[in-house]
Design brief:
72 residues, alpha+beta, three-stranded antiparallel sheet, 5 strands, elongated
Length: 72
């Protein structure tokens, strides 16, 4: 099985204002599929990264982070 990597040498390859994600199966959780998700902020280039059970869940977490990040 080939998996798309969203990292290069341990660093995210996510471009500013873009999202990258890939799926993986965590063996400890009996084959449940998860999403590894990265988003790079357009203003300061800060990286948001999370893991979720769905892409929608990851995007909701990102939206909360963006809201909190813009209040600063």
């Amino acid at each position: 099985m080939t998996t798309k990597s969203i990292n290069s040498n341990g660093c995210s390859v996510c471009e500013t204002g873009k999202e990258n994600y890939t799926t993986f199966i965590a063996g400890a959780f009996r084959g449940t599929q998860y999403y590894q998700y990265d988003y790079r902020h357009t203003t300061d280039g800060e990286l948001f990264s999370c893991i979720g059970k769905s892409l929608e869940e990851c995007r909701q977490k990102r939206d909360v982070w963006l809201t909190e990040n813009t209040k600063k």
